[in-house]
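BUG: 3D viewer hangs when loading the predicted structure for this chain

Environment: internal workstation, default settings.
Expected: structure renders.
Actual: progress bar stalls at 90%.

Input used:
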Amino acid sequence: TKSRLGSLKLKHWFKTPSRDANIIMQRQEAIKYFSSHQNLEKVLAINSCLKNIRSQTKIIAKMTNSGISVQEWNTFYNTLYNLVCLLDLCKFLPRSIELIVPHIEQFTILKEILALINKIMDFEESRIKGRFVVKYGVDKRP
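Structure tokens produced before the viewer hung:
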């Protein structure tokens, strides 16, 4: 794998192999699916999303203290966007690969957060001014 977490997960699987036949079969099905040439386009799309997902631990901690920069907002937004795209792609994986994302339906809140950020933040003006800028008309009351 190319990611640190993927590498650690794979290492864990090799060091402590499962004895559960169902888990072994699920892993074999996943490997078969992702290594099949006919799924190359889907695999590349998933890989593209994964490359653009960053850890958000520090950014979220900074958000609680209102100390987040425009670049960090962009990183947060891009990570959410790619995570939503990844989850949408995973919805179409065969049921036998359920092991990867067992509860996709629980992540619908991410789409709502993404839509709210997109509705409120003016990314271009924020980049120009170097601070968070709210889109024109967002704060107007009816």
